[in-house]
Amino acid sequence: MNVAERYAGVEISQIRKMNALAKPDTINLGIGQLPYPLAESIKNAGILAFESGEAKYTANIGDENLRKAVIKEYNEENSLNYQENNVVITNGSQGAIWNIFSVYLNFGDKVLLPNICFSAYETIIKIHGAKVIFYKLDENFQIDTADFEKKLNSNPDAKFALINSPSNPCGSVFSEEQIRKICEITNKTECFIISDEVYNKLYFGEKPLSPAKFAKNCITVNGISKRCAATGLRIGWAVAKKEIIENLVVANQYTCTCANNISQLAAIQAFSSKTETFCEEVRKKLEENANILYNALLQIPEISAVKPQGAFYCMANISRFGTSKDVSMSILENCNVLTIPGIAFGADADKYIRISFAVESELLKTALERMKGGIRKI
């Protein structure tokens, strides 16, 4: 039986394909998750929820106490006054992205994306029959605001412009000046900003700024996966105006009914002081790893990189050795270290490989030593 036309050509992502090649002894610098155990406060809350028999439905919009916790943090960070009916709990942050595009994209609609970005964005947009308009990032993986303005002016009917800061795969954090400028540009139109902030607790300098502070129309997406080492709990959310959330709740019902209730009850603890301490410790470990990785890459003359500002990724320019897929495969074969080809994140990323430094420091050092010797054999 033939697949529906909208799924023609859609495959498992290059990220997943590469990870499937890892052997038991491969050092994996490709996976997008923290290596640390789940925060104790979240784990214990989940155990209690199971023991209390809470394996039930919640409302389609999500658990009320979790929504209150989300919105309290959101208001404090952005100086806003939203209520718990301004947030819907979803099956991970990608579930929120899917619901937004599913509800609002018509065939032929346009969405602005950064020209190097998480591959799922473009795939989901195309599945829904819409068109991607890429705006440029500069050599430091910051938004080229002039190009953004040019692309939006050339496509005044664009429905969404998506930004992701801190960025997967670039590890960049957009400056306040850029965020304000993007908001200034979009505020002259009816275009909505979608701000994917799932890495917003993982930064190494200036705290990431949300466009929600300045944008006329903004939908913010976030979750606990990256900040709490909780990828498998699949808890994300979207925050927006009430009328937007009401439509996303309908989508939530027909995609997953509701997010996992046990996970939701556990996720409430993501906003506790104990978990905040956990997040701060994780951030310090990642900053240390970012420095280890960046300094090691400096020792390989043929490779250049921009120092990561957030998330747990670094894009290393390997263009002198060949295409990103060839280089990643060679590193895997010669060094038994897994990285992700930049082509997974768009054509403009083919001169890079993405290196995740979300591993224990000693393991990262071992991987880098292997790469220093092995990459010259390519």
Oligomer: single chain
> Low-confidence parts, pLDDT < 50 over ≥5 residues?
none
Tally the helices: 12
End-to-end separation: 42 Å
Q: How are the strands ordered across the major sheet?
A: 2-8-7-6-5-3-4
Output the radius of gyration.
20 Å
Q: Considering DSSP H and I runs of 4 or more, what fraction of the residues is helical?
A: 25-40%
Report on the architecture of this protein.
- The model has no long low-confidence stretch (mean pLDDT 95).
- With 378 residues, the protein is of the alpha/beta class.
- It is globular and about 55 Å long.
- The longest helix is centred in the C-terminal third of the chain and has 26 residues, at 273-298.
- Helices cover 40% and strands 14% of the residues.
List the helices and strands and how they pair.
Elements: H1 14-19, E1 27-28, H2 40-51, H3 64-78, E2 87-91, H4 92-104, E3 110-114, H5 119-127, E4 131-135, H6 145-154, E5 160-164, H7 176-186, E6 192-196, E7 218-223, E8 235-239, H8 242-256, H9 261-267, H10 273-298, E9 304-305, E10 313-317, H11 324-335, E11 337-338, E12 340-341, E13 352-356, H12 361-374
Parallel strand pairs: 1-11, 3-4, 3-5, 5-6, 6-7
Antiparallel strand pairs: 2-8, 7-8, 9-10, 10-13, 12-13
Helix pairs in contact: 2-9, 4-5, 4-8, 6-7, 10-12, 11-12
Describe this structure in a few short sentences.
The chain is 40% helix and 14% strand.
Question: Notable features of this structure?
Answer:
378 residues; alpha/beta; 7-stranded mixed beta sheet; 13 strands
